[in-house]
Design a protein that fits this description.
alpha+beta, 2 domains, 11 strands, 25% helix
Length: 242
């Protein structure tokens, strides 16, 4: 919604400025100028209103992390740590919606074809939690700083429901297989107007830990834990308020 409001401000200002700079004033241009200023002002009021909204549930993720990513309302941060002599991706997450969700996050070194995919992350209504999954790091790469591409899926079996947290994260447009219908459509639109556009996945730079295992045993599996969510005993209305 914030992006729509920003686009509205830009379109309104653009229309008003074009009409204002015209060489010859006409009633049509005057009407276009008034329409542009009005549309920009209304979009700006909407943008301010969206910014001033108060969360309806605690925003634990924002308290823990200044910056995070988001896929369709499922927000998360990414860290790479050393635990029990293994490298472990740590995902801190929280949903912005009341609908329970299932998420998957894929990470791969920039330019590589093989990704590490998280286990399914089950997130309750507006749930907050932590997911961890191990990754093998060859000895020659340990201690280096690497750029990882990010892909993610977020599914809401019962629908997303009501939005209850309003701070959004950096959008992830590629799914866990690093495909994106949105990116394809944007590329087609750019090609129609004669522009070549390349849309890369969102990225994060992480330092690889040292003195960790080069192989992940089959017994080492990832897990996710929800630390807080709205009580299932509360009268959730996500099925009715979609």
């Amino acid at each position: 919604m914030k992006n729509i409001a920003l686009i509205g401000v830009g379109l309104g200002l653009g229309l008003a400025v074009v009409a204002l700079r015209a060489d010859h004033a006409t009633p049509l241009l005057a009407a276009a100028q008034v329409l542009g200023w009005t549309f920009a002002a209304a979009s700006l009021v909407l943008l301010v209103g969206l910014h001033l909204r108060r969360d309806l549930v605690p925003d634990y993720l924002s308290l823990c992390k200044d910056k995070f990513f988001e896929r369709d309302g499922f927000c998360f941060s990414i860290a790479l740590e050393r635990e029990d002599d293994m490298a472990v991706f740590t995902i801190m997450f929280q949903s912005r919606y009341l609908g329970p969700s299932t998420a998957r996050i894929a990470l791969r070194p920039s330019g590589a074809g093989l990704a590490t995919v998280s286990p399914d992350i089950e997130c309750g209504p507006a749930g907050f939690g932590i997911a961890k999954f191990p990754v093998a790091i060859p000895q020659r790469h340990q201690g280096k700083t690497v750029t990882f591409e990010i892909g993610a899926d977020a599914d809401y079996p019962l629908g997303r429901g009501r939005e209850v947290r309003f701070r959004s994260g950096q959008p992830i447009r590629h799914n866990s297989r690093f495909r994106s219908l949105t990116v394809v459509l944007q590329a087609v639109l750019h090609s129609l107007i004669g522009h070549l556009a390349v849309h890369l996945p969102a990225m994060v730079r992480l330092k690889l830990p040292s003195d960790v295992a080069e192989y992940v045993p089959d017994s080492a599996v990832g897990h996710a834990q929800v630390l807080w969510s709205m009580s299932q005993d509360e009268p959730l209305r996500y099925a009715l308020e979609r």
